[in-house]
Amino acid sequence: MAWKDFKKNSDGMVPVIVQDYKTSEVLMLAYMNQEAFETTLETGRMTYWSRSRNELWMKGLTSGHFQYVKSLTLDCDNDTILAKVSQVGAACHTGNRTCFFQELVKKEYEDTNPLKVFQDVYDVILDRKVHPKEGSYTNYLFDKGIDKILKKVGEECTEIVIAAKNPDKEEIKYEISDFLYHVMVLMAEKEVTWEEITRELARR
Question: Within 10 Å of residue 91's Cβ, how many Cβ atoms?
Fold first, then answer.
């Protein structure tokens, strides 16, 4: 669709909701005019119109925290863009990953989005590798080295096989979780990311 077909606000702009393309986390809300929209298409980097400075604003040009376009989608009323991006660093000028970090109301719930849970656990494992914590089992595995990690992965594989012969579903859930944790320690040791794993799975 051409810019002329969009429904603009009174300032000739369209709001843009920005999401992380991997996790769907909402990162920020900004606005585009025609120049910002066309610059975004030309460069592949999210570019907005800064209402406070009244100028074109390529996100990350000063901070280095660029947003690389993965997709732009227009809503059913043609008046809002959903941008899925690869975010470098923090999206918020405060240094937070997302601009939406001030909780107003929240009910307790479990976030079971598989990719987000795997990535969050993997990030903790990576952090332990860089910033060791006394008494951490993860650091114990890293300290013992690759042979110990491989031994634990092998042991957990065997535990899954044994649990699978048991009619109790809870046991196999527990053993698979143990296995996945140790696999993530192995991934961190060998510098393999979830993005590389999911890309390989998608390729197959």
Answer: 25
Q: Per residue in 76-123, pLDDT tens? A: 999 999 999 999 999 999 999 999 999 999 888 777 778 788 988 999
Note the residue count of the chain: 204
> Between vectors from CA 177 to CA 173 and to CA 179, what angle results, nearest 5°?
120
Tell me the two tokens of residue 50. 């800064």
- Residues 124-133 have a mean pLDDT of 94
123-129 long-range contacts, CB within 8 A, separation 24+: 125/184, 125/185, 125/188, 126/188, 129/188, 129/189
What phi and psi values does residue 88 have, to the nearest 5 degrees? -95, 125
DSSP code, position 45 = B
The half-sphere exposure of 33 on its side-chain side, counting CA atoms within 13 A, is: 11
Q: Extract long-range pairs of 32-37: CB within 8 Å, 24+ residues apart.
A: 32/81, 34/3, 37/3
Q: Where are the alpha helices (DSSP H) in the chain?
A: 34-43, 114-130, 137-144, 146-164, 169-189, 194-203
Question: How do strand 14-20 and strand 67-74 relate by DSSP bridges?
Answer: unpaired
Amino acid in position 55: E
Q: What token pair was written down for 79?
A: 């008046």
